[in-house]
Amino acid sequence: MRYGVVGALILAFTANVAHAVPSFARQTHLECMACHVSWPELTPTGRQFKLNGYTLGEQLRLPIAGMLQMSRTSTSNVDPRSPDNFQKDRDVVVQQGSIFLSGKLSDHVGAFSQWTYDGVAHHSNVDNVDVRYANRIEDGGNDLIYGFTLHNNPMMQDIYNTAPTWGFPFASSPVTVGPNASTTIESLAQQVAGIGGYALWQNTLYGEFTGYRTADQAFSLLRAGTDKSSDAALKGINPYWRLALQHEWGEGTHSAMIGTYGMTVNRYPDNTLTTGPTDRFRDMGFDAQYQYITDEHRITTQINYIRETQDWNASAQSNPSDKLESFRTKATYYYQKKYGINLSYFSIKGGADATLYDTGASITGSSGGSPNSNGYTWELNYLPRRDIRLVMQYTGYTRFNGAKFNYDGFGRNASDNNTLYLLSWFMF
Q1: What gap in Å lies between CA 105 and CA 56, rounded to an integer?
Q2: What DSSP letter does each residue of 286-339 carry, written as one string?
Q3: What is the DSSP string of 74-114?
Q4: Spatial contact of 328 and 344, defined as CB atoms under 8 Å apart
Q5: Separation of alpha carbons 125 and 208, rounded Å
Q6: 94-131 pLDDT, tens per residue?
């Protein structure tokens, strides 16, 4: 599709829907930037809205919203030996289109639900879903917000934007090549059903416990349209926990959080054979965040670290067990809610395992069997309107799949995967 981003911008400014806002904003009569530093990153107000089960404000008859993303990617080195990896590189693509059915369902029940069309794969499926019951106890100066959640993506229910699900980058190229390795907690989206409870006491101590199982049988709707041949199959109930301390001061201008979380997953190596031994993954995470928010200036700094232990009780890997570590830090600055910059550093490292990480192919392989990758991302944002964001993003790698030079054994260097990514993002 080659009519370009400019045409879409003209349509966005002239069409009647350009003056509409997403359903949460219509429900609360607040502008988007009251709840978001810049969507989807939440402010203290946004976190309160989510904790209260998306129920603040009035109930809409039809709580529908939409999203459209159009993008163009330029990879540093488009290798002709593997054209399949870069067939959409330097093309303008309709990256994603989503419909949201999200809002207040009753005084104590609300939902966030998303159905997405992938314009690159030409396929649609259910996206993030979070249905909540929330209530509040105020007694003798004590304040407790509590609730229950049903969702389909680990940590999408979290109220902070440090974790992988809602963390930076908030959008990225659908046609570029990425590192082979990732932790389990960030690779189960739209494959599981999570049911859990949470509470925030005195606006200070936040805790949650959730159990995850395969999204099948009664929970099949939570993975509707996904590739069943590659979806994870989990054994029984797999626990997740979360603790965080937060503090706000200066009438909400400043806020800070420090937290920890963890998850244990028992996964069958073959999702068609759900008996016998399983591989076990144990993830432990630590995160922190600081925000400064005024009408003129908005600053966020974040850090997130995950350590994963992988026990290969059922799969034939090179090692009986492996370690994997993921680290990311991010800083954001917005001026007048209109001009923004994000700077991020990321790192993935672990022990070498040729069976696990080396595909044996050019571009995607790791000739040393190492998962180690690290690099940086800078991103410029411009919001001509509150419901339109224009993004220029650059990702550079100093190490990729284990090496700086010739990481795949076919002569490809880490910097060959550096990408310039242009995005037009519309909410309506």
Answers
A1: 11
A2: EEEEEEEE-SSEEEEEEEEEEEEEEE-SSS--SSSEEEEEEEEEEEEEEETTTE
A3: EES---TT-GGGGTTTTSEEEEEEEEEE-EESSSSEEEEEE
A4: yes
A5: 28
A6: 999 999 999 999 999 999 999 999 999 999 999 999 99
